[in-house]
Amino acid sequence: MIVRGDKTDSIIKDDILRMVPAQQNTQVTYSRGWSRIRYSPLGYTSGYNGSFSVCPSNGGAQGSQGKKLVLSQLGRLRIDGAPIDC
């Protein structure tokens, strides 16, 4: 969910900018372990840069591969070209 401002509780409909539906059978983890990322008004993510591991949930199948998304302090998100082991 993408919300306006610095809300974590009591989010009302007008605070919601976009809803991104969850993908079944997909696990996403953030290297920082936080449940949110904060962007500045200029689009920077200073202090929230990190990476996301996006892995398919294949019922624990060995050898599953996923992708790594890297978020820079400038707010740019890129996909790392090398697959990751999940």
Report on the structure:
A hairpin with a 5-residue loop joins strand 5 (65-71) and strand 6. The protein has one domain (23-85). The strands form two sheets. Strands 3, 4, 5, 6 and 7 form a five-stranded antiparallel beta sheet that branches. The chain has strands spanning 2-3, 16-18, 26-30, 50-56, 65-71, 77-79, 84-85. The protein is an all-beta fold and 86 residues long.
Please tell me what the overall shape is.
Answer: globular
Termini gap: 25 Å
N-to-C SSE string, H for helix and E for strand: EEEEEEE
The description of the largest β-sheet is: 5 strands, antiparallel
Instruction: Give the strand tally.
Output: 7
Class based on secondary structure composition and strand pairing: mainly beta
Number of helices: 0
Strand content is: 25-35%
* Rg, alpha carbons: 15 Å
Which whole number gives the mean pLDDT?
85
